[in-house]
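Journal club prep — side note

Before the paper discussion, L.F. wants everyone to see what a predicted structure for a comparable chain looks like in token form. Sequence:
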Amino acid sequence: MRMTQLCLAAFLLLLPSMGKARVVEKIVALVGSDIILQSEVEERAAPMMADIAAISNPAQRAARASALRRQILERMVDEQLLVQEAADLKISISSEEIDRSIEQIKKDYSLDDTQLREELHKQGMTLAAYRQNTKREILRYRVINIAVGSKISVSDADVQSYYERHMQAANLQVRASHIFLSIPEGADTATAQEKEKQAQLLLHRAQSGEDFARLAREYSEDPATRAEGGDLGWFGKDILPKPIEELVFSMKVDEVRGPVRADRGFHVIKLLGRRAQDPKPLAEVRDQIRGQLRQREMEKQTKNFLTELRKKTLVDIRM
């Protein structure tokens, strides 16, 4: 009897601490049999919340924060769809591959381990979170390359046609960088307006003297150029969507302008250089043109691929 009382007393003493320790996680999305938690969205949003916290108007601050969380959630849904597709394709990413990718980034930006950690700390990110992000990027590239890239073919006739229409006619090239903020598919007007306000804020910061490449690495949502500070390289006309092209070719070197809406979101653009040159022979630029045409088709087909994945998978967003 005494033993029973002691056990009961011990159990009752534990109840308060058990109640305090219990944390109920909110599920914000179901992607097939997988879940996405509110805490995961908040963790991903944290590095970008500092700017939003500076907005003085409470209603605007709340709307911007809500739009950011929704946009991040949409991206996480796409990522989870790609993870599931990777499992079907039996694709896995090893720690060694992540190490090699990070070492290459350190080499490209002349960073040692301490400097890398300092840069991550400025962005509110741990090394573990950065490794996880790197893994996601590698996985995304692998899946897209297999599921989409393997089906894309650019013929010699396509290259010849492009060369005759563009490379021979135009000898002006520009080099630009951009910060891209995507609008989630099916977003309402309010969400699009909030994304535009975020782009306007980044434009103001860049025009006020902040390093454009750093802003792009921190805020751009274009995975193809983010690591390079948004650098789009040298290009002629008819490479980028028309609204962006018209803006870029009217800019002065070092000028920052935008935001301009094109395709899936808003772009803030900095012109890095301008040059005029005689067109190179087709033999010298064939591979470059083929790569540009392939990349353009990859972007188009990737969007279609993600749309199809959503159609065949139960996606229930609860935010």
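L.F.'s comment for the group: The two ends are 52 Å apart (CA to CA). Keep this in mind when we get to the figures.
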